[in-house]
Amino acid sequence: MKSVIVFTVLTIWANVDSTPCLSSPSQWCDSLDSAIECGVLKQCLEANATRPKALAQSVQVELYFESLCPGCRQFLTTVLLPTWVLLQDIMSVTLVPFGNAQESGKEKPYTFVCQHGEEECLGNMIETCIMNTTGSQALQIIYCMEASTNVVKAGPMCVELYSPQTKWDSIMACVKGAQGNELMHQNAVKTGSLKPAHEYVPWVVIDGVHTDELQDKAMASLFTLVCSMYKGPKPEACGAVPKKRHRSYCHNE
Questions:
Q1: Which residues belong to any copy of the Saposin A-type domain (predicted)?
Q2: Local structure of residue 20 (DSSP, 8 states)
Q3: Which of 49, 52, 187, 211 could tie 98 with a disulfide, CB 3.0–4.6 Å?
Q4: How many other β-carbons are positioned within 10 Å of the β-carbon of residue 186?
């Protein structure tokens, strides 16, 4: 590895018991915890892109969340993204930023009220437009935003970092226009169609199914859950045992 870019990953939530970064940089992508602790998620992602693609169907992970929910931010930045960096060949991720928000209006434009206020509605809309505009870079961009002190203000920097060809003006045109309003409506419909109905966020759906057992396993160790559910030959990374993380939720009131 020729270069290392260090990221701040909400260290207040991290549970670090060792210092794997003192080992050879070639080993930093060997486990879930060392990748996130050493701040080389981008490099691990690029390295994983050269791995042979899996033959079996990937594990489908859907995350229903809201941009300013502390538990959602924790799960996305310290569990979901690091797991995907190491297991992207055997898992796919769908993000639905809406969470416990409420939609009103039967005709366009729809209006939205969010659990954590107008700033969260703006964050949800920005992240939705980022997904629509940047495609495969969206997960890293949203990770970058959610790992920052101010989710909304971090948007332009995170887009520049992971999708430099994308103009921030195009994101904001979506946010302020009919396209963003319709995309957020679709998030509302998808969230409202969950069976069972969501009671809190983060709400995790695995291969189209949500159960209390799957939620608990995902929160305790999504890494282990994806490895166990993948039907094909297990990748080498599945031999690692990640640390358990503290879990928290934003309940639907």
A1: 14-54
A2: G
A3: 187
A4: 13
What tokens does 135 get? 């495609």
Q: Which residues pair with 112 in a beta bridge?
A: 103
**Residue 245 reports pLDDT greater than 60:** no
The distance between the two most distant Cα atoms of the chain, rounded to a whole number of Å, is 58
Determine contact, residues 54/231, Cβ cutoff 8 Å: no
- What is the three-class DSSP state of 205? strand
Say how far apart CA 175 and CA 125 lie, in whole Å: 6
**Any alpha helices (H) in the chain, and if so which ranges?**
32-37, 41-48, 70-75, 81-87, 118-134, 138-146, 155-162, 168-176, 178-192, 212-229
Rounded Cα distance, 146 and 185, in Å: 22
The model carries a pTM of 0.77
Name residues whose C-beta falls within 8 Å of residue 144's C-beta, 6 or more positions apart in sequence.
7, 154, 157, 158, 161, 162
Best CA proximity match to 92, nearest among 226, 239, 245, 240: 226
For residue 134, give every residue at least 6 positions away whose Cβ sits within 8 Å of its Cβ, in sequence order, or none: 141, 159, 162, 163, 166
Task: Give the strand pairing for 102-104 and 91-97.
Answer: unpaired
Top-level class of domain 11-246: alpha beta
147 and 94 in contact (C-beta within 8 Å)? no
Of all residues in the chain, the percent with pLDDT exceeding 70 is 79
Q: Which residues pair with 64 in a beta bridge?
A: 96, 203
The chain-wide mean pLDDT, for the chain, equals: 86
| Strand 91-97 relative to strand 59-65, pairing | parallel
Instruction: Let me know how long the chain is.
Output: 253
pLDDT digit string, tens, across residues 140-178: 999 999 999 999 999 999 999 999 999 999 999 999 999
**Looking at this protein, which amino acid is placed at residue 111?**
T
- Considering just the CA atoms, what is the radius of gyration of the chain in Å? 18
